[in-house]
Amino acid sequence: MLTFAALLLAQAPTRLPETVVIETRQAKPLAEASPSVSRLDVAAATDSGQTTLTSLLGGAPGVFAAEQSGEGSVGSLFLRGTNSTQTAVLLDGRRLPQGFSNSYEIGRYRIFGLASVEVLRGPSSTLYGANALGGVIDLRQQSPLTARVGSTLVAEGGSFGRGTLNYALLANNAGSGKAATQGTALSLTATHDDGFRPNADREAVSAFLKHEQRLSPNLVFDVVGSADHGKAGLPGQQLGGPPNVTDWQRDGGWLLSPGLRFQDEDTEASVFWSRAGSSIQSLTVPFANRYLLDRDELTATVDRRVRPDLTLGLGLTYERTTFDQFDVAANSLTWHETQESLGLWTRAEWQATDKDRIRAAIRTDRFTDFAGKTTGDITYSRRVTKELLAHAKIGTAYRAPAANDLAYGTHLNLPLRPESNTGFELGLRHEDSVPGALSWTLVAFRNDLSELIDFNPISYQTYNIAKARTQGLEAGLETRPAKGVRLFGAATWLDSQILSSDYFLGTGLTGDKLLRRPSLTLSLGAEIMPNDDWTFGVSAAHVRGREDFDWNAFARTELPDATFVRLWIRRVLSDRTEISLRIENLFGEDAPPAAFGFPAQPRSAYLSLTRRF
Q1: What is the 3-state secondary structure (H, E, C) of 513-537?
Q2: Phi then psi dihedrals of residue 96, to 5 deg
Q3: Three-state secondary structure of 200-249
Q4: CA 102, 106, 112 angle in degrees (round to 5)?
Q5: Quick check: 78 and 153 in contact, CB under 8 A?
Q6: For residue range 11-33, what is the model confidence (pLDDT) as tens digits?
Q7: Which residues are CB-contacts of 439 (< 8 A; sequence separation ≥ 6)?
């Protein structure tokens, strides 16, 4: 008698097991990853019409991501209730340039040209250092040595004057039965948007690059790069007053990183150097500022299997970052700072039995501007069945003070300390033996946050405000119960609380919730492919239980509960041509605002044409 899995295998094309890199810096099967790791399939997301990193992340368990003024605008990101500044964002393992406040401005990044986005939730500083207090996000490009060659052009237009042009090229020297030894992947995106509010227009261009060259059977040289530039109006809060028609922001960033990877039966090693920069110039009456950041990073890692059941690893990272803030207006400030850090870590992975595995890591970081920090974590996992993995972890992490935290001085001249997190998690991961047939995760987590940094909104001086806590449950699901049917969803319940000390001017008192985090986030979706030519999809996201601060009334206010529904239809016209339609916010205004005074984008529709060459 055929099993359900065998039926699925007979109905669907063979799929290779998925791998992830983010948890150990080495490629591992997804089935062996902790349930706090998600691999988001960019191909499936782009087929459903998603274009921005913010919208893609919003469907992952444990993540709340929202754009403040529609697609491509400034975004907020909360991993398990931590702040946007407490998550590291990478491109193929290289840290992308952060902003002046340590925020990565995720609204600047498009997902076109990527293969996947990997998310690691929970404290992750032992491998990734500063900014990994809440987790890590890694944008993964296709490998030009193994991916299919060709080029793709996608043009899209729709509501509010939005137009997007995307082009991707992948080329290598494979041929005549020979595997490729060198190849290049390049993707370009250009976007224009008039916006749905006064002074909400945006112009943006971005690019990703990856070149790989196999120097020997075990050694690969690669170059990873990115560049982006944009200018946008800043409509500000919408609170019934006159529209803001003068404020604007121009931003840009770039990354160039050559590296080497070595792999044989027992050893995996890598070394890379990254040079990156970002710039922001803004006018927000009566202030006008320009911020520049230049960053160098040298990272080397080696993992060695010293016996069949034991792998040991070492790593080193040196970073040098220069910050400049320029006086563009009389109310602005000129400031310059250079910070250096050195991080050393070691890790071990022990396969204690055929079912039990233990991972442990410890790291120490030293800084030129503040005290050093030592972090560590230990993970235990047990293979309950062939498809079910149980997982437990305790770890510590931190976020170093940002340039924006230091530029205006500190409250009472007290020294700032890095923000800290001690995190705990218990969870389950199920990966069906037929890849893609059924995948689900369930995690209970807790973050104990201390030394959190806040600022006086009058003097902009900063200080540590003691402790907070986030805890909750998160779950994710994806399944293909029948040929041509895909179901997916995620749910997060979050409890956040300030445990001691008070935020400035009463914006947060002991016992209050942390601002803007929803207590419940739920997303569900279905995609149906009745034949090879048509795809129909629908998804819904619901958020509830958020609070924000009304600076006009000087009081907390509850943000409305909301449901956001989107539809998409895709039609394959030929082997090379597709058209698609997507409708965002089907029920009009009923969608989650990013914050108090920032309304949701109204119902909008977009039509796109895809051509492959």
Answers
A1: CCCCCCCEEEEEEEEECCCCCEEEE
A2: -70, 155
A3: CCEEEEEEEEEEEEEEECCEEEEEEEEEEEEEEECCCCCCCCCCCCCCEE
A4: 145
A5: no
A6: 444 456 789 999 999 999 999 99
A7: 30, 430, 431, 432, 476, 477, 478, 479
Cα(569)–Cα(607) distance, integer angstroms: 10
Q: Phi and psi of 390, rounded to 5°? A: -100, 150
Which residues touch 4 (CB under 8 Å, ≥6 apart)?
none
Can you tell me the distance from the alpha carbon of 421 to that of 402, in angstroms, rounded to the nearest whole number?
A: 17
Q: In the CATH hierarchy, which top-level class contains the domain 4-612?
A: mainly beta
Q: How far is CA 598 from CA 122, 240, 562, in A?
A: 29, 12, 14
Calpha distance 522→476 (Å, rounded): 10
pLDDT value of residue 12: 41
In terms of Cβ atoms closer than 10 Å to its own Cβ (0-12, 13-18, 19+), residue 538 is: middle
Residue 139: CB partners within 8 Å, gap ≥ 6? 53, 89, 90, 91, 92, 96, 109, 111, 114, 117, 208
CA atoms within 13 A on the CB side of 93: 26
Tell me which residue of 445, 497, 513 sits closest to 473, measured CA to CA: 445
Q: What is the β-pairing status of strands 150-158 and 162-172?
A: antiparallel
Helix, strand, coil share of the chain (percent; to 5): 5, 60, 35
pLDDT bin (cut points 50, 70, 90) of residue 131 is confident
Q: Are 381 and 391 in contact (CB under 8 A)?
A: yes
Residue whose C-alpha is closest to residue 299's, from 143, 136, 129, 139? 129
Q: What is the rounded (10 degree) CA torsion for 433, 436, 437, 438?
A: 90
Give pTM, 2 decimals: 0.93
Residue 200 makes CB contacts below 8 A (sequence gap 6+) with 69, 70, 73, 193, 194, 232, 233, 235
Among the ranges given (232-241, 318-327, 352-361), the one the predictor scored with the smallest mean pLDDT: 232-241
> How many whole angstroms from its chain centre is CA 399?
16
Query: Given a cut of 90, is residue 187 above it in pLDDT?
Result: yes
CB atoms within 10 A of CB 285: 11
Predicted confidence at residue 611, as pLDDT, reads 97
User: What pLDDT, in 10s, does the model give residues 47-60?
Assistant: 898 989 998 998 99
Looking at residue 6, its pLDDT comes to 41
The strand ranges marked E within 417-533 are 419-431, 438-450, 453-455, 462-464, 468-482, 485-498, 520-528
The chain-wide mean pLDDT, for the chain, equals: 89
- Counting residues of the chain whose pLDDT is more than 70, the rounded percentage is 93
Of 467, 376, 302, nearest to 125 by C-alpha is: 376
Could you tell me which residues are beta bridge partners of residue 490? 476, 523
CA 177 to chain centre: 38
Find the distance separating the first CA and the last CA of the chain, reported in whole Å.
44
DSSP 53: H
- Report domain extents, the chain: 4-612
Q: In this structure, what DSSP letter does residue 411 have? A: G
